[in-house]
Amino acid sequence: MTDNIAANCEEVYRTYGTMLYRICLTYLHSSCDAEDALQDIFCKYMLKPKSFKSEEHKKAWLIKVTANHCKDTLRRNKRRRILEYSDEAGEEAHEPAEDFGVLEKIFALPEKYKEVFVLHYLENLSVLQISSSLGISTSAVKMRLMRGRELLKDVFCEEGVEV
Amino acid sequence: MIDKSIKKEYEKLAPSEECFQRILKRAQTVDNSQNFRKSVLSISRMGYVAAAFLFVIALAFLVSSGMFDGGKFGVYYNGDIITEEYVIAKAERIEYASSGVLLARHDNSAQAPAQTANDAVTLELCGKNANVTVTDGVILVYDETLGIYVDVGETLEFTGKTKVVWALPEPAADTYQLTVTGEDKTYSILASARADKIMLKIK
To answer: How far apart are CA B188 and CA B203, in angstroms?
Structure first.
């Protein structure tokens, strides 16, 4: 990491920022939450002293931190939503959902299938890269990809969209 | 493989420019705070170096001024400097060779030595580039193997702390004298033997 944190941060953002944002969006379903998460992730990158063996190592680290951060955020938000339950209307208070079009079906997948699906088919990561980023075995990655495809196939077939 | 339309939709997703600017701004803040921390650290490091340097200078000054040369110039008995007041010293009995080697400091059944002194006292001389002249008796330097023997009329130079044994001659006379010179001062140490005591006085 260079001494100039701002310059290094900009370089990393330009290389991986969009990818990380999309991954955040996959988990959080909200562009505002995804941007907030992205800022937090880059804060962690700036403040944590680290030395990466290679560019691939750095990429894997960023994806891992992103996935973990988003999962933590989801857990926190879930607890907050329970506490914000509106007694007057008797309805659960929630933010208006964003429409991501055809991606909604992918985002609606269960988390463990969705994350490997997005990383492999949309971010073009290999099974090995996904395995090292998420900390799961390659066989687990393959199983989840297969299961994710099956689920999506069912959904899209119903709507007449080719997957 | 995935449908191109899905991929196209996915690739449209991107963070806003404001998000990038916020991240960059925070990076600059972190940069500034780390640079500040580095400059404070380097200043404090310089402070430690300066303090160490001053300490060395002070130490060198104190050593050159003689502070660690054994203390205040003078003659000491049992840790106390001999002043105008009488200092009562316990008389020792010593046996020594004419070469100056101290053979024994108390009564024992050793072979008859060359010399015996029934009245001797251990003193400590302190000073820098000072000397002591024996007017009466002999001085033996404390190191028992050194064999420095300073006879009447001779002078012993010393710097720092030097333990010596001052042996008073027999038969006992009234007063015996050592002359100590140093730091532009001259003292006379007078000793008077009284039974098993020696009275010491400075003049």
So the answer is: 5
d(CA A7, CA A5): 6
Dist. CA A49–CA A52, nearest whole Å: 10
The CA distance from B115 to A46, in Å, is 86
Q: Model-level pTM?
A: 0.52
* B140's tokens: 């033996």
d(CA A51, CA A26): 28
User: CA-CA distance, B180 to B117, in Å (whole number)?
Assistant: 22
Determine the pLDDT at residue A13. 92
pLDDT band at A37 (very low <50, low <70, confident <90, very high): very high
Please report the pLDDT score of residue B166 as a whole number. 87
Quote the tokens at residue B97: 């060779």
As a whole number of angstroms, the distance between CA A59 and CA A57 comes to 5
3-class SS of residue B192: strand
> Would strands B185-194 and B197-202 be described as parallel, antiparallel, or unpaired?
antiparallel
Q: How far apart are CA B164 and CA B59, in angstroms?
A: 29
User: What is the residue-wise DSSP string for B77-91?
Assistant: ETTEEP-SS-EEEE-
Can you tell me the ipTM of this complex? 0.78
Chain B hits for A29, Cβ within 8 Å: none
pLDDT digits (tens, 9 = 90+) for A120-144: 999 999 999 999 999 999 999 999 9
Say how many C-beta atoms besides its own lie within 10 A of residue A50's C-beta: 10
CA distance A106 to A114: 6
Mutate to test the interface with B, among A121, A146, A150 (most CBs of B within 10 A): A121
pLDDT of res. B110: 46
Compare CB distances from B31 to A4, A35, A161 and report the shortest one's residue: A4
